[in-house]
Amino acid sequence: MTWLADNWQTVLTLAGRHLYLAGVPLVVGFLVSIPLGWVASRWSRSYPVIITSTGLLYTIPSLALFVVMPIVLGTRILDPVNVIVAMTIYTVALLVRTVADGLNAVPDDIEQAATAMGYRGVRRLLGVELPLAAPVISAGLRVAAVSNVSIVSVASILGVSQLGDLLLDGYNRVIWGELLTGIASCILLALALDAVIVGGTRVVTPWLRAQEARA
Amino acid sequence: MIGSVLAWFTDPANWQGEDGIANRLLQHLGYTAMAVVLAALVAIPLGLWVGHTGRMRWLVSFANSVRAVPTLGLLFAVSLWLGPKIPGDLAFTVPSILVLALLAIPPLLAGTYAGIEAVDPAARDAARGVGMTSGQVLRQVEVPNGLPLMMSGFRSAVLQVVATATVAAIIGLGGLGRYLIDGIALGDYPQTAGGAILVAVLAVVLDGVFAFVQRRVVSPGLTGRHVGGRGKDSRSVAVEADRPSADVRSSA
């Protein structure tokens, strides 16, 4: 506790960086996985190809992916972009499947009713299918958020600073206060992101609350 | 950059001895096997029990919430705490294996539980109806039917352990992670990248092997896999359960 009292400003700065490194990939990955997931759900022949190839990327251990990024991107080894791109890959790999399965689960009669009302193509996707798939996609997003926060801390080994620095430094210098603060801040950040996603889902699915109230 | 990584791979000196690729690869596989077996001894019976009886479901959600704990922090904390209490080289390996096993428990537990839970209640009732005992229902109906999800939980656990074992090199564990951690410390990029490629290939190959095993062990009645032997008469059941969707994947 005394360690935290003396160093709370450092912790806040690192937490901000952590949020940036885990959050940006979450948003970008979400935006990328929607069209990909839509393609996978629309054309059933593309489904196994997309799901298998993203699944393969998800298989690669995080530290390895961080390290290989400079070869692929031509960046410097310490560049935070490596971490952001790697985390985006994980997010997409996790979400594409959820988005595809969520869209597939939208009942046919609803899709037909929407088509009959004049909803077509992208408008039907954004106006009808995506909102109905929101609870499923949100579940995937929550898993991605929590795992992103945990994985990003590994980037400290490469010298990309965020909350993982507290873990590494606390271990190297045997400062329990610092190590435990690092662990606790990572958990808090994960819970906070999770809460934001849960809240956001509630906002975009008002009909679910209406059903709850009626029941 | 790619040329120097290739040179690292083709240098015979990097393949032999204590620090050689062959030895590091075997170590990595050994740690993975040890941790997964340890975790399975705990998680599979527990998951079967929770799924079969429906009691203590909170155990599964508790195990899942543990995933928010950063793996790196867990490695450091356990190593600092247990390391000094264990003599010799074991001071490095024991805490690491323990953490690896701990991290393999949530996906194994969730997969086993979800597999058993998802079994069609009608199938379960029918099994009881024909006079099966509780143990027989579990062994002959629930486990075979729950196998796809159990296997995907197992595969997630293996990937989790392979990935975390790499990171565990930072607290002194051997295995392929050594190339990454030592390479970073020395600023030796070819070694670092070489290690990263090895770990990535290992993870992909292992997952492929277990995907194949999964296809072989899961009943054809569930996967729609064609079974030969009966000539024209053998028909496959068209049920799409080959790759079940369950969120048993996890981080690291």
Number of strands of chain B: 0
Number of distinct beta strands of chain A: 0
Looking at CATH, the homologous superfamily of chain B is MetI-like
Question: Helix/strand-derived class of chain A?
Answer: mainly alpha
Spell the H/E element sequence of chain A: HHHHHHHHH
Q: Which word captures the global form of chain B? A: elongated
Mean of residue pLDDT values of chain B: 84
Q: In one word, what is the shape of chain A?
A: flat
- Main beta-sheet strand count, sense and barrel state of chain A: none
Folded structure, characterized:
The complex is a heterodimer of chains A (215) and B (252). Helices cover 84% and strands 0% of the residues of chain A. With 215 residues, chain A is mostly helical. Chain A has a single domain, classed as MetI-like (MetI-like fold), CATH 1.10.3720. In chain A, α1 runs antiparallel to α6 and α6 runs antiparallel to α8 (176-204). The model of chain A has no long low-confidence stretch (mean pLDDT 90). By secondary structure, chain B is an all-alpha fold. Chain B has one domain: Orthogonal Bundle (MetI-like fold). In chain B, 70% of the residues lie in helices and 0% in strands. Chain B has ten helices and no strands. Chain B has helices at 2-10, 21-53, 58-65, 71-82, 90-117, 121-129, 134-167, 177-186, 189-217, 220-223. The longest helix of chain B is centred in the middle third of the chain and has 34 residues, at 134-167. Chain B is elongated, with a radius of gyration of 21 Å. Chains A and B meet through α2, α3, α4, α6 and α7 of A and α4, α7, α8 and α9 of B.
What's a quick, concise take on this entry?
The complex is a heterodimer of chains A (215) and B (252). Chain A is built from nine helices and no strands.
Task: Please name the defining characteristics of this protein.
heterodimer; A: 215 residues; mainly alpha; MetI-like fold; 84% helix; B: 252 residues; 10 helices
Would you spell out the secondary-structure blueprint of this structure?
The complex is a heterodimer of chains A (215) and B (252).
Chain A: H1 2-42, H2 46-59, H3 62-73, H4 80-104, H5 108-116, H6 121-152, H7 164-172, H8 176-204, H9 206-214
Helix pairs in contact in A: 1-2, 1-4, 1-6, 1-8, 2-4, 3-4, 4-6, 6-8, 7-8
Chain B: H1 2-10, H2 21-53, H3 58-65, H4 71-82, H5 90-117, H6 121-129, H7 134-167, H8 177-186, H9 189-217, H10 220-223
Helix pairs in contact in B: 1-9, 2-5, 2-7, 3-5, 4-5, 5-7, 6-7, 7-9, 8-9
